[in-house]
Amino acid sequence: MKTINQWLDEYGESHQNPTNKTVHWICVPLIFFSLLGLLYSIKLSFFSLGNIQGNVALIVLTLTLIYYFNLSKPLSAGMFLFSAICLFICYLIEGSAFVPLWQVCVTIFVLAWIGQFWGHKIEGKKPSFFKDLLFLMIGPAWLMSFIYQRLGINY
């Protein structure tokens, strides 16, 4: 199994262009949120936590956080915090009843991926996940690693 630094370094190889990096700072969190929101929209009738009905997002997120924990305990804490914020936003959107959460998330997902591919066109390199699908999970951790570096937190 690769170390977190190996994953982050390899991911960073196709993310050198400043414009592409900026696009990633916007689009990667939006893609993470939109996927989580889509999974949050799939309810599980046999599972609930207080007023919150269980959903597929909680299961997938638990497995994802275990993966992050195995790569880096400190980064997994940051990803847990970001995930909790995303879940709270899903809860708020779902409760607003203006537009169904899944519709909001499909729109965000499509627009964010258009942005990602535009960024990679500028970069001149294919997205990392074309090489290994696990890079889809590394992208958010790659961004979190920059936040940790800025804050002086080892990961």
Automatic annotation (TrEMBL):
Pfam families: Mpo1-like
Chain segments annotated as transmembrane: 22-40, 52-69, 75-93, 100-118, 133-151
Alphabetical GO biological process terms: sphingoid catabolic process
Tree of life domain: Bacteria
Gene Ontology CC: one annotated term: membrane
Statement: the UniProt record of this protein carries the keyword Repeat: no
Keyword field: Membrane, Transmembrane, Transmembrane helix
InterPro entries the record matches: Mpo1-like
Name used for this protein in its record: Putative membrane protein YGL010W
Organism of derivation: Arcicella rosea
